[in-house]
Amino acid sequence: MSEADSLNITMDPESLYREEAYTDRKIGSIRVMIPINKDGSDDSTREKVYVGSAQLMTPMGALPLSFELDGVTLEEALDQYADAAKLALEKTMEELKEMQRQQASSIVTPDSPGGLGGGIPGGGIKMP
What total of structural domains would you count in the chain? Predict the structure, then answer.
């Protein structure tokens, strides 16, 4: 039995959504996740979900941002877009700073991968 055989890789037929995308072709896009039944018909018992996305250009390339919008209609989602994008950017920047802090505070030893020895046997500094 392989490891893949033990995974449960099935879709939940009770949690299906159809996507519609809206964009201004300048700043970003809003995806509307429309709940559907397994026969493809709209499921009116569940609410639509609005997801905004944008890209921030950085010196290292494009940084993708994705954020949920609490609106019930596309118009409400559009009204929330700017504030939600700014909040997502702030959260992403905080996470990046935390990752930098963790990287800077990690201890490097001569025999550790990436250390002075590079993980190569006999490559570390040894004292007689």
Answer: 1
Q: Does 106 fall in a domain?
A: no
Q: What are the b/e assignments for 98-124, b being 16+ CB within 10 Å?
A: eeeeeeeeeeeeeeeeeeebeeeeeee
Does 105 reside within a domain? no
DSSP E strand boundaries for the chain: 16-23, 28-36, 49-58, 61-69
Domain range for residue 18? 11-100
Q: H/E element holding 98? A: helix 74-105
Q: In this structure, which long-range contacts are made by residues 37-45, counting pairs with CB atoms below 8 Å and at least 24 apart in sequence?
A: 38/13, 38/14, 43/16
Cα torsion 11, 17, 21, 22: sign: negative
Condensed to tens digits (0 to 9), the pLDDT of residues 37-57 reads: 999 999 999 999 999 999 988
Q: pLDDT digit string (tens) for 58-78?
A: 888 888 999 999 999 999 999
